[in-house]
Amino acid sequence: MQNAPPVEIKEEADKAKDDSALAQKPMAESAVNYGAPGMMSGSADGATTVANAPPAPPPAARDAAAKRMHAPMLAQEMMVGNAAPGMSADMIMPYPQPMPPHYQGGDRFEQKQANLAKAVANEPVSTFSIDVDTASYSFVRRMINQGTLPQPEMVRVEEMVNYFPYNYELPQDKAEPFKPTITVMPSPWNASKKLVHIGIKGFDITHIKRPAANLVFLIDVSGSMNAPDKLPLVKSSLHMLVDQMDAMDTISIVTYAGSAGTALSPTKGSDKQTIRNVIDQLGAGGSTAGAAGVEQAYALAQQHFNKDGVNRVILATDGDFNVGINDPALLKTYIEGKRASGISLSVLGFGQGNYNDALMQSLAQHGNGNAAYIDNINEARKVLVDEMSSTLFTIAKDVKIQVEWNPAAVSEYRLV
After folding, report:
1. Radius of gyration, CA atoms only, the chain
2. Distance between CA atoms of residues 129 and 339, nearest Å
3. How far is CA 294 from CA 128, 312, 368, 384, in A?
């Protein structure tokens, strides 16, 4: 399943109820309010006043409340106090919770500017690439679970939408590789606009029908990976993926730290114990010679290239490339060249604090693969077991969607 980023449209005034731009049945969507209704009221001079507030809680209750950090999406905690004048004694009043602090770490995310609205009269046709990544959702979820708010650049709307499964209609056979589903709904933040969501479901590849896989695991074993949520989680994740492989598949493992090396020569997927033994012996230490490891992984993939199967390098790292890359642009050009030869690159991100999401996303895009962020074993199972076919097996490359808006019904649009 893939989703295009939502599109915000503004209808013509005399066509507010005309959905002829995209003939779909509107779906209702409810907005979420995080405030405490009935507690706060605004005055004419812009100040904020509190109406009929209950007495302040005792110091012990205030101290306890100050220590509780809840994500905005969670329900507010309720407390019972003495009744204020005009209120019944058994009325339960919401006690406002402090907003969690924003996450402060050394992780690197690309900052992007919001897209500007375009006039349909000038540009009626919009062309954009579909997105299959989910890394943003996993990272944001981790921040919220830790009691902090993500920085704005960590939130990519299309990946938040992509993360969840949808009951889209499936194509019937390979002759029709995609089936589109288009939804038009009221915008929750602007009553004069609507949101258009375009989702596509690709032809489903079952385990029985899937092609053989020539996979090279490129594993970062540098010192920066020496944390429970990094290399140990990588190893657990790879064990689950190995369980899905069989005799028609070929598995190789390349590691890189101060230097790159082949930890496992190409081995049949049915020889699981040999593969597991190599995975179990992996340990972290040294600096990160990422470029040398990438070259060696692609060389192994090329040597055992399967013209009738899937040929993919799977990079597992925190993205902290600090040795061996003098020019990241050259590495991206190298990966693009290998993509043209039929070898793709997927990226699995781990850890936080020095997580280089910007580089990971770029490498996956240049390698014609996908990027996922794995923060726990359940996420590893989701990406590498439950969604293995979409993670590893490609049914189309460089897919783009083209939408032509009807100027009689839509005056402007913006890619969210």
Report:
1. 25
2. 17
3. 29, 12, 15, 21
Instruction: Tell me the whole-structure pTM to 2 decimals.
Output: 0.69
Q: Compute the C-alpha angle 197/198/204, nearest 5°.
A: 135
Q: Return the H-helix or E-strand segment holding 329.
A: helix 328-340
Burial (0-12, 13-18, 19+ Cβ within 10 Å), 289 = buried
Element (H, E) at 279: helix 272-280
CA–CA separation, 56 vs 48, rounded Å?
17
Q: Of 175, 211, 206, 380, which Cα lies nearest the Cα of 312? A: 211
Read off the pLDDT of residues 86-101 as tens digits, 9 standing for 90 and up.
555 455 656 667 777 8
For the chain, how far is it from start to end, CA to CA, in angstroms? 19
Q: Where are the beta strands (DSSP E) in 203-309?
A: 213-220, 250-256, 260-268
Give pLDDT, residue 337.
Answer: 87
Query: pLDDT tens, 221-230?
Result: 888 898 999 9
Give the three-state DSSP class for 75. coil
Q: Which residues pair with 118 in a beta bridge?
A: 413
Tokens of 28: 């209702």
Contact 127, 413 (CB under 8 A): no
The bridge status of strand 193-202 relative to strand 178-186 is antiparallel
Instruction: Please give the average per-residue pLDDT across 182-202, as a whole number.
Output: 89
Q: Rounded to whole angstroms, what are the CA distances from 292 to 27, 166, 318, 374?
A: 51, 40, 16, 24
23 token code pair: 């003939």
> Over the stretch 312-338, which tens digit does the pLDDT of each residue have?
999 998 877 654 455 677 788 888 888
User: 298-311 burial by CB neighbour count: b if 16+ within 10 A, else e?
Assistant: bebbeeeebeebbb
DSSP 128: E
- Helices and strands (DSSP H and E) totals, the chain: 10, 18
